[in-house]
Amino acid sequence: MNTQANRLKKLIQANQVLANIESLVDLLPQLLRLAQDVTSAEASSIMLYNESKNVLEFAWAMNDVLGEKAMENLKTGFKLPMGQGIAGWVAENRQALNVIDAQNDERFSKTADEKTGFTTKCILCTPIIHQSKLLGVVQVLNSIDKECFGSEDEELLESFGHLAGVALVRSELLTQRLTQQKFKTQLEAAARIQKQFNPSQPDLDGANLIWGSSVPAQFVGGDLYDFIPNADGSWYIYVADVSGKGLPAALIMSALWTRIRAEALNERDPGAMLKAVNAGAYEFMNGEVFATMALLRYLPESGKCEYAMAGHPPPLLVSEGRADPIESTFGIPVGILAESEFELGEITLGKGQSLVIVSDGVDEARNAKGEFFGQGRMEETLRHSAVPNSGQALLKAVAGWRGQTPPNDDTTVVEIFRA
Description:
The protein is an alpha+beta fold. It has helices at residues 2-19, 24-39, 68-71, 85-93, 111-116, 151-195, 246-264, 270-285, 375-383, 390-402; strands at residues 41-50, 55-63, 79-81, 97-99, 123-130, 133-143, 209-215, 223-229, 235-242, 291-298, 304-310, 316-319, 322-325, 345-348, 353-358, 411-418. It has a 6-stranded antiparallel β-sheet, with helices on both faces.
C-alpha cells in the first residue's frame, strides 16, 4: 500500500513538473525520467507519431543500465511503421500492452536491442493520445523490483500517458506561438525598414507641394513612391506597384527602388529612364513578376511635367471642381521583357492645380459587400476636395469606404500641387 501511495505521489509530482516545462527538448527527457520513476523501470523510450508518413519516429530514450553512450545508436533516425513491433502494435490499436516475455513475443522487434546491446525482458507500452489524436507511444522496459510489470503499473503508465499527451500538445502550442511571435516581430522590423524607403516631403518655395503616402495591405507591401531631386531643380516623382503582396513583393520593391535611384543619376527624360530601369529590373524579375509605374519629371517653377507610363493608371489633373485623367502614354509594365520602349508625354500644371498619382489599390479598394471604390468614385472625391491636400482627402475616403474590411491591396497616393 505504501508503494502504491508513493507511486501516486510521483504521478502527482509528474503532473506538476510537466506543467512547468515549455520546450520539447526539455520535456522529452523529463517525461522518460518520470515514467521510469513511476513504474520502477530500467529503461524507457518515447516515439512520436508522424502523421504525414504514418510512422513512429524515435524521439528520446533513457537507460539506467547502459547509460547515454550506448543509447547514441538509437539517435540515427530510427523509424517504426505502424503495426510493427510492440510500439507499432500499440499505436495502431491505440491500446496499452503489457508484454511479460518480450523475446518470445512475435510482435517484438529486436532492432533497438541490437543497436544498443540491451536485453529487453518485459515491456509495458501505452499510447499517447490527446482528444482522440494519436501523438505517439511511451514504453518502459524491465521492472526493477519484480519479474514483470503488473496491473498497477499499467494503470499508472496509462495515466502518465494522458499527462504526457497534454504536455506534448501544450509544448507544441507554445512552440507555434513563439514561432508566430518571432515571425510577427520580423514582419514588424521589415515594416519599419520599408518605411525608410518612403521619402520626406520636399521643402518647396511658397505653397508648392509634393506629398505622398503608402499604406500596405499587410505588414509590408509592393507599392513604392519616391521624390528624387535633379541638378536643374526638377524632381523625378513616381509611383510603382509590384505584382503581388507581402514579403515577396516587398523584396522586389526594395530592389526596384535601388535600380531607380541608380538610373536617376543620369537625369534622362522619363521615357529613357523607364527603358533603363526596365532593362535592370528584368535581371531580377525575369518576366515572373512585374511592376506598373508612372514616372514624372516635374519642374516646380514652370509647372512643366514630362511623364512616361509602364502599364500604370494615368494620373489625374485636379483643379477646383474638376478631376480628369491625363492622356495615357504607351508602355508595358517593367520586368516583363528585357527590352521595351516607353512613350513620352508632357503637360503643364497651371497655378492652383494638382496632379494626383495613385496605385490600383485605390480604385480597387473593396467594402464589406465586396464592391470596388471605383474610378468614378475616385474622380468624384477629388472633384469635391480642396486643392492642395486632395490626396489626403482621397486616402480618407478610401479608408471610409473599406470600413472594418481588411485592405485587399496596397494603397498609394502622391500629389503634386503648383501654387
